[in-house]
């Protein structure tokens, strides 16, 4: 407002508009009206920088990945200057006709199913337990969960390797002392079953904090009146949880489950940094591990890119189905 702009204020006469004050500032524009600026293209202009960054970070690498998957691209083409040979869909045909593809896919599906199931089950149990604790104990446990969640896998893996070490591992020593292991030199990765058990435990350990914190926040929003009404009707703790609490947190549970499926499908570091402990490394191939080995160990970048693209398509389809269920659940909730 300029220094000499007059301010005119009108007080409405008594009646239904009594007490309403309207103002007129300087050039006569009503102060209660909205001032529009920038025109209809302003929102698009604000979003443009974000779209440009996303395009550079996501779209450009994806286009490059598609191009490489259609080529016979190896180390000679990468650093040797040899001409690139376009092979069309030959790499994809080799992927879908390979036994390794179906073995890796089945291994990935089993791992995701088990690890996500354990994460959600334990997450619900721990989140429900937190609602029963005192504020001080709950705050301490939540801080511990946040510390676990903040630890990068690349830092956590050396600690886990030390815990499960065949000769000096604390886990072997403790289980042997308790009579649960026949020997202190037990190799957890000698057999794929026990190796995957360790990997699943580590993944659940790292994913549990996010699930617990999210579900606990949803549980604190459940109406205490509904819980008390169910208790007065004679419902027990399990009946209250399944009939009152679980339906109330269903949207959050669906979102957390969807994110856990996506994250566990993409697990790489935990498997890659532990698979060399055992003798049979091929037993720990998921789609991500298989793609990495073909690309950077076998130097067959075109074939590895094709595996990665097939994996992305499968994950995209899975994500679309999961998001559809999340949206449907949110709509039913409202």
What do these coordinates show?
- The chain has helices spanning 42-69, 75-79, 90-96, 99-130, 135-150, 153-163, 170-177, 192-220, 224-232, 237-248, 250-265, 269-272, 287-297, 301-333; strands spanning 7-11, 21-25, 29-30, 71-72, 85-86.
- The chain has 334 residues and is mainly alpha-helical.
- The chain has 2 domains: 1-35, no CATH class; 90-333, MetI-like fold (Orthogonal Bundle), CATH 1.10.3720.10.
- Helix 4 crosses helix 8 and helix 8 (192-220) packs antiparallel against helix 11.
- The model is unreliable at 1-12, 15-26 and 28-33 (pLDDT under 50).
Secondary structure: elements and pairs:
Blueprint (H helix, E strand, L loop, with lengths): L6 E5 L9 E5 L3 E2 L11 H28 L1 E2 L2 H5 L5 E2 L3 H7 L2 H32 L4 H16 L2 H11 L6 H8 L14 H29 L3 H9 L4 H12 L1 H16 L3 H4 L14 H11 L3 H33 L1
Antiparallel strand pairs: 1-2, 2-3, 4-5
Helix pairs in contact: 1-14, 3-14, 4-8, 4-11, 5-8, 8-11, 9-10, 11-14, 13-14
């Amino acid at each position: 407002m300029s220094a000499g702009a007059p301010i005119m204020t009108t007080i409405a006469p008594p009646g239904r508009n009594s007490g309403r004050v309207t103002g007129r500032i300087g050039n006569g524009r009503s102060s209660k009206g909205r001032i529009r600026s920038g025109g209809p293209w302003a929102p698009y202009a604000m979003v443009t920088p974000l779209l440009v960054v996303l395009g550079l970070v996501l779209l450009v690498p994806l286009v490059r990945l598609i191009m490489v998957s259609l080529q016979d691209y190896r180390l000679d083409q990468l650093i040797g200057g040899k001409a690139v040979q376009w092979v069309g869909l030959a790499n994809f045909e080799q992927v879908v006709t390979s036994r390794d593809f179906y073995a890796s896919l089945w291994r990935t599906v089993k791992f995701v199913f088990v690890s996500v199931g354990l994460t959600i089950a334990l997450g619900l149990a721990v989140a429900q337990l937190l609602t029963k604790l005192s504020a001080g104990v709950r705050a301490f446990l939540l801080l511990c969960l946040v510390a676990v969640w903040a630890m990068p896998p690349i830092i956590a893996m050396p600690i886990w390797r030390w815990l499960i070490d065949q000769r000096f591992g604390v886990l072997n020593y403790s289980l042997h002392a308790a009579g649960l292991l026949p020997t202190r030199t037990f190799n957890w990765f000698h057999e794929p079953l026990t190796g995957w058990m360790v990997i699943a435990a580590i993944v659940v350990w790292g994913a549990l904090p996010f699930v617990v914190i999210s579900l606990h926040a949803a549980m604190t929003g459940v109406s205490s009146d509904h819980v008390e009404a169910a208790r007065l009707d004679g419902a027990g703790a399990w009946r209250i949880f399944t009939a009152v609490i679980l339906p109330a947190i269903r949207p959050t549970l669906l979102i957390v489950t969807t994110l856990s499926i996506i994250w566990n499908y993409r697990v790489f570091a935990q498997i890659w940094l532990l698979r060399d402990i055992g003798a049979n490394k091929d037993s720990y191939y998921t789609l991500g591990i298989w793609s990495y080995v073909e690309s950077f160990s076998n130097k067959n970048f075109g074939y590895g890119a094709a595996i990665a693209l097939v994996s992305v398509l499968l994950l995209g389809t899975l994500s679309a189905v999961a998001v559809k269920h999340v949206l449907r659940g949110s709509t039913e909730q409202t």
